[in-house]
């Protein structure tokens, strides 16, 4: 089925884009992650990747032409597919929108005297589309509050998309006058996120003009009244609301750490703005001694009364029951959906081998003795996998309903744990990189992922994935395939233990590797042969230095 690709909004201020260059032509085959075109925005010229696979059937905007956001950019589908209905429908829709625009223009002319224009210097910031597939975003954390000064380049908020949590920068200077989406709330792309402008601006007039409707005005008035009542409350009331459990102001990371440690957030005092609980507050929290001694004293009194009332009593354990519901983030929802689809749609099977790591340890020590050189065992595994994939192309494939796609490129996905869940940065053309180059790429991308600086394009296009839990002491485990990959390798810890070499029992170092395969594309014998090749490269690191 043909898919319509629209002109993307690549920045918050982008209203239209210019196709600087098409990198493919009509009739070309497209893989997910291929660069379709270079698009000029109001900020920069950026590469635009395809999120779909198929044949390029139609180009809607020629090189050098400019078109508004959401205009028909291209159509991708099956070769020979009839797209006349899409082209005709698109024209009809355009005509409909044009007529609607005329009506809207007339209405706005009639209401011009009532609403006025947005004052000079005031900017309405909308929920950005941070990826091509993003339909809505969730504000994870506001890093600015109403009344704060904002400069171009300042981080306004952290926004959760369907792929990652990303920092959102301001493109304007001024004061933060209004916040339209609160922390934890989700809104569609282009919803009013904030208003930035000069101090003293009439926000009601700006928002009424933006909405152009009495319902919005009434909603804003209600929201202002609620906000006014919140503003008149002092810090004492804020702390009471936390203790009473009505609302707990805490960062997502603080909530996660508290949940892991079993800490009740209602008992933690926040040091942030408006009593907000931060990571530091959770790490420094210790249960009050008085809180511990009070129940003990109460229990003592009750025990004395019980003894007076009856000769024998039984001390029963007592405790508090509690449950906290934490809203699922967009990232967690995306992870659940992707892994659920993979596990239940792809028939998994698993193969495990044990690898001798003695030579690998010696080689790594020699490599790292060189100046400015640092190679990890994980880097060696990634390089070995890339070389093994080149010899076993059946494993470097993707399944689709009608065909099996053999990828000629080798892009290695590396599972990285972050506070909100799991992301998979991609090392492009890993088979062409040396060990130190792979190590630098992994370090750079993992750092970006943990600091929420990684771009969606840096997490797309993998053909094979490696997940390593060896650093946590895990000896052996199985992973769920990261589709559309056909396989994923699980890497365990290196263990020192007795092994048999040349008929003698000696101390050796071994590591277990488990390959999860999609049986639709990879048969058992193919997976076993891949692991044999992988073992050869790992046990003979000199072969990876050539």
From TrEMBL:
One of its GO terms (molecular function) is acyltransferase activity. GO terms for biological process: pyruvate decarboxylation to acetyl-CoA. SUPFAM superfamilies: CoA-dependent acyltransferases, Peripheral subunit-binding domain of 2-oxo acid dehydrogenase complex, Single hybrid motif. Residues 221-237 have a biased composition (Basic and acidic residues). Residues 2-77, 122-197 form the Lipoyl-binding domain. Keywords: Acyltransferase, Lipoyl, Pyruvate, Transferase. Residues 94-116, 206-238 are annotated as: Disordered. It comes from the Bacteria. Residues 249-286 form the Peripheral subunit-binding (PSBD) domain. Pfam families: 2-oxoacid_dh, Biotin_lipoyl, E3_binding. Residues 101-112 have a biased composition (Acidic residues). It is an enzyme of class 2 (transferase). One of its GO terms (cellular component) is pyruvate dehydrogenase complex. InterPro entries: 2-oxoA_DH_lipoyl-BS (IPR003016), 2-oxoacid_DH_actylTfrase (IPR001078), Biotin_lipoyl (IPR000089), CAT-like_dom_sf (IPR023213), E2/Pdx1 (IPR045257), E3-bd_dom_sf (IPR036625), PSBD (IPR004167), Single_hybrid_motif (IPR011053). Its EC number is 2.3.1.-. CDD domains: lipoyl_domain (cd06849). Its cofactor is (R)-lipoate. Belongs to the 2-oxoacid dehydrogenase family. This is Dihydrolipoamide acetyltransferase component of pyruvate dehydrogenase complex. It comes from Maribacter spongiicola.
């Amino acid at each position: 089925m043909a898919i319509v690709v629209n002109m993307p909004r690549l920045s918050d201020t982008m209203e239209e884009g210019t196709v600087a260059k098409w990198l493919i032509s009509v009739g070309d085959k497209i893989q997910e992650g291929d660069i379709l075109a270079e698009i000029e925005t109001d900020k920069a010229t950026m590469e635009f990747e395809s999120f779909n696979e198929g044949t390029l059937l139609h180009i809607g905007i020629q090189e050098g032409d400019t078109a508004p956001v959401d205009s028909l950019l291209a159509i991708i589908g099956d070769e020979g597919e009839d797209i006349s209905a899409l082209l005709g429908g698109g024209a009809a829709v355009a005509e409909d929108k044009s007529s609607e625009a005329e009506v809207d223009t007339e209405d706005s002319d009639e209401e011009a005297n009532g609403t006025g224009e947005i004052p000079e210097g005031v900017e309405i910031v909308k929920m950005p589309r941070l990826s091509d597939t993003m339909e809505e975003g969730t504000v994870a954390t506001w890093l600015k509050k109403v009344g704060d000064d904002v400069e171009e380049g300042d981080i306004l908020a952290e926004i959760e998309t369907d792929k990652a949590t990303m920092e959102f920068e301001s493109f304007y200077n001024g004061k933060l006058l209004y916040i339209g989406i609160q922390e934890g709330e989700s809104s569609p792309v282009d919803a009013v996120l904030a208003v930035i402008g000069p101090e003293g601006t009439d926000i009601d007039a700006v928002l009424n003009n933006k909405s152009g409707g009495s319902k919005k005005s009434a909603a804003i008035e209600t929201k202002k009244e609620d906000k006014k009542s919140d503003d008149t409350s002092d810090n004492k009331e804020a702390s009471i609301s936390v203790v009473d459990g009505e609302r707990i102001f805490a960062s997502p990371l603080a909530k996660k750490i508290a949940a892991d440690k079993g800490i009740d957030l209602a008992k933690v005092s926040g040091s942030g703005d408006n009593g907000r609980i931060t990571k530091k507050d959770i790490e420094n929290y210790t249960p009050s001694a008085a809180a511990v001694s009070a129940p003990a004293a109460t229990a003592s009194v009750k025990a004395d009364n019980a003894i007076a009332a009856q000769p024998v009593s039984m001390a029963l354990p007592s405790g508090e029951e509690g449950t906290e519901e934490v809203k699922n983030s967009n990232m967690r929802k995306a992870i659940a959906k992707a892994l659920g689809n993979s596990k239940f749609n792809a028939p998994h099977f698993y193969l495990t081998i044990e690898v001798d790591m003695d030579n690998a340890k010696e080689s790594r020590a020699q490599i790292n003795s060189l100046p400015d050189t640092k190679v990890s065992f994980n880097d060696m595994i990634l390089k070995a996998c890339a070389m093994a994939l080149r010899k076993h192309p059946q494993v470097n494939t993707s399944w689709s309903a009608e065909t099996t796609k053999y990828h000629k490129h080798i892009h290695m996905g590396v599972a990285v744990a972050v506070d909100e869940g799991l992301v998979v940065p991609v090392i492009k053309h890993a088979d062409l990189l040396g060990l130190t180059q792979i190590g630098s790429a992994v370090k750079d991308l993992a750092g970006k992922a943990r600091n929420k600086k990684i771009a969606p394009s840096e997490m797309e296009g993998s053909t094979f994935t490696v997940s390593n839990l060896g650093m946590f002491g895990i000896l052996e485990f199985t992973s769920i395939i990261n589709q559309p990959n056909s396989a994923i390798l699980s890497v365990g810890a290196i263990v020192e233990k007795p092994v048999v070499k040349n008929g003698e029992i000696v101390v050796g170092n071994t590591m277990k590797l488990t390959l999860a395969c999609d049986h639709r594309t990879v048969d058992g014998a193919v997976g076993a042969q891949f692991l044999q090749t992988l073992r050869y490269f790992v046990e003979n690191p000199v072969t990876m230095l050539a």
